[in-house]
Amino acid sequence: MGKTNTKTDTVRQFYQMGILEVRMENYKKRTMKYCALQGTYWMLAAVGLAFVTPLLEAKGFNSMEIGWLNAVKYISVIFFQVWIAAFSDRHAKTFPLKWIMQIMGVTGIISAVAFWFLDNNFAEAVIIFILYGAVVNCLSPIVDSLSVQYMNHGQDLHYTLSRACGSGTWAVACVVIGSFSDCFGINNILILQIVSTIAFLAVTVIMEPVDFSKDEKVEKATTQDTNVKRIESQEETPQEIRSEVEKAEVHSSWYLIRNYPKYTLFLAGCMIIFMGYNLNATFMIDVVEGLGGSHTDFGLAEFVLAAAEMPVAIFFSRMRKKFSIDQMMVICAIFCTLRAAATTFAPTVLLVILSQGFEILGLGIFYAGSVYFVMENLPETDVVKGVSFINVASVGVGQAIASVCCGMIKSAVGLHNLLIISSLVSFLAVLVMLLMKIAPKKGRQIA
């Protein structure tokens, strides 16, 4: 009998080891594919985000027009992101995120081709920038949300490593794009965006579908009688049942804002952080050129900016053991302020480039940690909406307001004063994040 039990235990151990090996192999493959997805996205975004101002200046648009066009792009983000997020949450099982990414990628190629042929025509530029906002800026949270769907349904991957790959490809792409621009002309960098988008589409094809059969979320109680029986049996309290029901429901964006004060203050902090970032970064090419630099130097500054994000992405899990996600977001706001101030008062091109190193604990934390903030503070059914709404607040509202203002401010009081204002706005974000840190996760429920 003892020998039989020993043999059974041995068989069970080998079986469990086999399962673990398969899971680890799937984990590695999934992470590699997701690394490629993040990498190809940030390659195409390097043109669509970092080099938009040089492109528009080369086509003859002035500071006011550039500000308004960027505002159009970010307002587009607000409308499209809210709709895409709501659609994605409600149709997650029938219309996967990879299909949404493929539709957006094809639209991105069309908008890049149109941008390539664009002359100094403001009306045509508005249409193109509506598409740019709907695609280039809205893709980022969709890519991030795919990782959340995987992890919430038992398909683990190394998100922070994948995000580090995204930062790395952005860094390399910015240097390549800057050099390419100086050699072949700024307008031709749009060819690089089209090629990168094609690569992105190819990666979406090989991404495995989310396995919703592994869904571990609690199903909504179907009848009131069932809930009454659970309460009468004293197995669960009404509050516990209400919590389970809430987890199974898909909520509106406004419900989340009204009922989750910590998340709402986080959205406000993100909005102000990106306002400060936009005010500081939109005309950075003018800062670099004003100090005697070139597009290659501008690309190097973007390289340092992105490369600084990589250590945080790689070691983020270790940082979480020492700091709460709330504390890390306060640190993020502080270092965003330091980066803005250092850029503002840098007397040489070299110091402008090196100033971007403050990003190491700035937006590097934001990009690595915002997904985890949502997972810790919102119901599982609302993660796509939660991540997407962060993009709406930061990239949409924050950068839209800043884009309109930065063109006006630059025209009215000059580039240097614009940069000083960006530093003050960034400091305001620190104060809001401190309020977020002490706010309760959930307030009194409001329907």
Summarize the structure.
This protein is mainly alpha-helical.
Could you please describe the fold and organization of this structure?
The protein is an all-alpha fold and 447 residues long. The chain has 19 helices and no strands. Helix content is 81%, strand content 0%. Helix 3 runs parallel beside helix 5 and helix 18 (383-413) packs antiparallel against helix 19 (415-438). The radius of gyration is 24 Å and the shape is globular. The termini are far apart.
Outline the biggest β-sheet: none
Counting H and I runs of at least 4 residues, what is the number of helices?
A: 19
Give the % helix: over 70%
Oligomer classification: single chain
Q: Provide the gyration radius in Å.
A: 24 Å
Beta strand %: under 5%
| Cα distance spanning the termini | 61 Å
Q: What is the total tally of β strands?
A: 0
Inertia-based shape? globular
Low-confidence stretches: 216-246
Q: Structural class, please?
A: mainly alpha
Mean pLDDT: 84
**Secondary-structure element sequence?**
HHHHHHHHHHHHHHHHHHH
Write the layout of secondary structure elements.
Layout: H1 2-50, H2 52-58, H3 63-90, H4 97-117, H5 122-152, H6 159-184, H7 189-206, H8 224-232, H9 238-248, H10 253-259, H11 261-281, H12 284-290, H13 295-307, H14 309-322, H15 325-345, H16 349-355, H17 363-377, H18 383-413, H19 415-438
Structural key phrases:
447 residues; mainly alpha; 81% helix; globular
